[in-house]
Predict the structure of Bifunctional nicotinamide-nucleotide adenylyltransferase/Nudix hydroxylase.
Amino acid sequence: MPLSDNAPHTAVLIGRFQPFHNGHLALLRQALQTAQQVVVVLGSAWQARSPKNPFTWQERAQLVHASLSAEETARVRCVPVRDYYDEPRWVQAVIAAVQSQAPAGARIALVGHFKDLSSNYLARFPNWALLSLPRQGAFDGTPTRDIYWNLAEHTQAQMWTQLDALVPAAVATWLRTWQTMAHYTAMREEWRMVSGYKAAWSAAPYPPVFVTVDGLLVCKEHVLLIQRGRAPGQGLWALPGGFVEPHDTLWQSCLRELDEETGLPLTAADMHAALLGTEVFDHPERSLRGRTITHVFMLHLPLAALPAVQAGDDAAAARWVPVDDIAALESQMFEDHFHVLRRCFERWGHGPIPALP
């Protein structure tokens, strides 16, 4: 179908595509009918694998292209954008990613469907024409993933009868192969744990809000991290921390978690003297376990040598990581902890605190 004279040069389709399903494919093909090219923005890029974000952005780009014809693929550009848990910053990152794929001054249109509150991002790009399209069938990523994780223990035939109707054939073939890999087993078991965790609170009159603490300790241009020893996020790197105990203050909980998880050989007075301040992180989607608000205590230890640490409690390992190595750990960090580090270093990154790469 030839394009009209006033058609936009570039149409933009934004999503996580976890996985890329038939509803996404229908929207993408409609976008291809409206513009010379389509830029597919792959959200949650560089996140560690989780039941909500099991596939890397490279894998999702592969699935998008595999679902299209050769002619369509030639007109589709996939670009990754990380989660910032900071909407203005995320909007600017999306704009920059799209502009990197379009000629200067090109007309750009945003393609999407207003499904629910999760679609409000479509209103954040006032300089782009908005092409609001009707829902493309009864497709949704969350139930599609739930079928794939198969916690109901359906037979493989039953499971694939459902999935084959929801995703393009190329995606179904890829998902069958991915199901044989260790990643699938790990994500399925993690989702089983998280689902059980949520079920324990299902009878509450209101969804619970959890309060946690984390310690961000810097010493000699190193950050103290722990490797999680159990789900959720088993094997991922994180700040030492945990839930607030009923009879503890936030500060007392932070000291307790540091002691239990790292064995840090410092007194409470030493820690208080090192305290720079606190930051609160409360993005509604920051944790799969439910609404979780954390208070991060930022400390600088002006010591001549790194204190010895020893993993304990539910930490599999504890170590001091050079600040220069943090960026390379982004895709191996739990939930939003990389962005916690980024924001804290922007806030406190001066004087004795080195800049985060």
Observations:
- Residues 210-348 form a domain with the Nucleoside Triphosphate Pyrophosphohydrolase fold (CATH 3.90.79.10).
- The radius of gyration is 23 Å.
